[in-house]
Amino acid sequence: MHDRLLETLQSVAQVRLVAALRDDRIGFAGPKDLRIFIPDIHLISEKRQREGGFLYSTNYPDLLTRLVLALTRLKTECAEDESALVYQIGDFLDLWRESPGLDDQLDAAAGIKDDHEDLVTALLDRRLKTRFLLGNHDFDLYRWPAYGAWERRYYLPGVLMLHGDLFDWVEALPDQIQDVVVFLLSPNVPPNDYALGQMKSLIRRTHAGRNYRAFIGNPRPAALGALGTVDAIPERWNVQSQGKFFDSAARCAAQGKADYGLDLKAVVIGHTHQARIVVRENAAGDFFALVDCGAWIEECMADGDSAPSPNAQIAALCANEFRIYQLAPR
Amino acid sequence: MSRLTTAALALLLSGCAPGPVAYVAVREARFRSEVKAAVPLPLTSDSRERLLKFLRAGGDTDRIGSEDVEPDAAKRYLPLLDLLSDPANLALENLTEKGTFQRWFPGRRIRQVIDAREESPPALDPVAVTDGKYWWIFTHHQKKLSTLLVVKAIPRQIRR
Description:
Strand order of the largest sheet of chain A: 4-3-2-15-16-1-8
Helix content of chain A: 25-40%
CATH class of chain A: Alpha Beta
Low-confidence stretches of chain A: none
Structural class of chain B: alpha+beta
Order of helices and strands of chain B: EEHHHEEEE
Number of domains of chain B: 1
Shape of chain B: globular
Low-confidence stretches of chain B: 1-16
Radius of gyration of chain B: 15 Å
Largest sheet of chain A: 7 strands, mixed
Strand order of the largest sheet of chain B: 2-6-5-4
Helix content of chain B: 10-25%
Distance between the termini of chain A: 23 Å
Shape of chain A: globular
Number of helices of chain A: 10
Number of strands of chain A: 16
Strand content of chain A: 15-25%
Mean pLDDT of chain A: 91
Oligomer: heterodimer
Number of domains of chain A: 1
CATH topology of chain A: Purple Acid Phosphatase, chain A, domain 2
Distance between the termini of chain B: 17 Å
Strand content of chain B: 15-25%
Mean pLDDT of chain B: 88
Largest sheet of chain B: 4 strands, antiparallel
């Protein structure tokens, strides 16, 4: 199904390969089970974009809308024994840039959506049934009725999907997040008000004092390494051996195994706005991958390019193979 | 606040602790201006007349045609229905930012509307406003108000 996804992407965009990893140890073998990951979008209202003095806005919203519509066609054309599930992995709406002093009753989300109707209606189309994660820039939505089905993590066979902000806290506040880690890692522990309140407090602390005018995640274009063509995708392309959050993700996976018996081979995140695949493996057969799906905001720089490109990435998993693509308007 | 009557609404004004989230629930068919779909905007002479009958009956469709529960409904609401009949007044911002409808709807605009008849929450959040007796629930498309559903409000407090 990777090939059909690639055809779908090429029907709306120029496509380059950021990274690829095919390995049976991932443990997600189904050849007819395609998972598609759309990373950070960070929508804000037009008025706020004008008046807020932000350097960055969502990249290529028209392309993203066409892409989502094309994914809807892909999904609806699946055979009965096939499935294509789309995940938006957090920070769809950027409440923090929309309204710096977050008011529990402020309808910031509604105002943002009003200004991006085509994209919002495409992504929330019932035929697509997009699964949403709450990111640190839209976490407060968890209290609102319309967002009650948005999650903080998803489990796939062998794979944990998070927005990724957890690893900010793992690295900065390791002693204060155990309750949060428990409910993020444990499949059988639903979030309670206490843990959600803790997450909310942590998020507010990390946002404190930041106005996001110059950048959100990266003051400089994110380094992507060498991008490849999509004519013949190799078993491995641009797979790195170290990178931001990898150690934290590996520790969380180890904790998930020790505490809850999870056999996690990969963690899928967004949040950093730097698309990449990082793998650690050894001769004893240990294997763990961090798949960072990138973003649709801020910029990236590929080896050999003369200028930065807007981040516009999408990732997918099928038949033990992760791929990340960089898109641009045709 | 005391002017507001609500249908399953919680308003908050708290300090540090988060308050309850404000939302509006669509009521049973008997207390809705329309049984199925909402009224398209702008209003036509037919839809104005239908709405006015509903308002005269006090928001109870069982009483339409038999009792004038609110005989002054026309005086109170006809100017509003006039505004809603003119496309020039139907930009979303007329309701959310400008004061076009302020005379009838002075309070907050509620964007969380729960309608259990729907398969899923709406992609675009409707705008619900109250005149104290009814919730007026507007949907919108391309920043134009596109439909209207009027629902009898539930008093939050009974005055004794």
